[in-house]
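Morning!

This is the sequence you dropped in the shared folder:
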Amino acid sequence: MRPWSPRLLGAHLLALVCIAFAAGMGLWQYDAWQERRAAERVDLTEAEPVPLTDVLGPDQPFQTAGLGRPVEVRGTFLAEGTVLVSDRESADGKPGRWLVTPISVGALGAPAVPVVRGWVPADTAIEDLPAPPSGEVDVLGWLQPTEAAGEPDDDPKDAVVPALRIADLLQLLDEDQDLYEAYVVTEEPLAADQADGVTAATLDQLPPASRFTGLRNILYAIEWWVFAAFAGFLWWRYVRDAVRSEP
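The structure's back. Tokens below.
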């Protein structure tokens, strides 16, 4: 008897149905695991904001626990240091730039943190952008780490940078001005910026979900895939024995 003999057709069909069902159930549980983790990451960005100084100090390296954490920044925008970060998409996928201005945390002269005030179209010149609000302001946003070095900046002295790197921003400020090793993306632009067409910037990095989130779903997925492998093994043994037993 050959493995594809009509007498073994029923065994082949049964094995195919069992393996497909178990594999499909495993994929369903795997998708549920991913969705639960993604939902928790979004939920973490909706936590109650805390003062920036409670999460990160001016001379401290960025901690992973602070990624995406809602923070409150109270201070005064610096008169200089406003830049545009190129190659940033809006919420609906349009190409544009980020409008960024450092804000002195507390009194003027204190360490500052760059604040993404919002998104503007790619053809907007920095001369046409609104000046940062004067006086003390309160800003709510999400904490993000300084970005890694990407393509080199063709003109380090202009107000357009390829990435939001703290080291690059320091070159545009007074030598005595210190910056936090992070930046803040505002939840929504300030009222004055909204009047000039600045829209909300999208959040690049979300906080990591707990390693135990959706653990039951991923274990169920592995269990179903083990069932699929076991069904395949039984099918192989049955077909092999049937072929060998035939004279």
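Headline: Strands lie at 50-51, 70-77, 83-89, 95-105, 112-121, 136-145, 160-161, 182-186.

More detail when I'm at my desk.
O.
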